[in-house]
Here is the input.
Amino acid sequence: PGEKIMSKNHEFKEDRSNWTVQQWTDYAKEGNKDLEGANLCGANLYRANLDGANLRGAKLEGANLYGAYLKGANLEGASLWGANFEGANLWNANLEGASLRGANLYRVHLEGANLVGANLEGANLRNADLKGADLEGANLKGHDIDDLRKRVAGF
Here is the structure.
């Protein structure tokens, strides 16, 4: 356990600023949802239940999130370069401004997800469910835009 610090809303919480990737991984697997700014680079979060988790600004480069549950999670501004999300559930997740460059989003459920301004260059979106997803201002370099439009519309 780390030392306690005062948060913005004047509550005391544990100082996790120097935690290792393993400490963050263990914390997440224990069901904790406050993972803002977490360093989870290369973490194995296979089928982890992170529904509703706050991962705002988290670093998950190269992390394994195969089959993970991230329904309604906040991943705003998260760094997800090269992460494996195959088969993950990201329904209604907030990925605004997230970097998903080179991420594996094969068969990912992104229905209703907010991908405004996200970087999806080189990401594998094959068989990803994008129905109702918001891709406004997203970097879609290398993707078939017409195909994506149809999938967002549910065709």
In short: Helices lie at 21-29, 145-153. Strands lie at 4-6, 12-14. The first strand starts at residue 4 and ends at 6. The two ends are 50 Å apart (CA to CA).
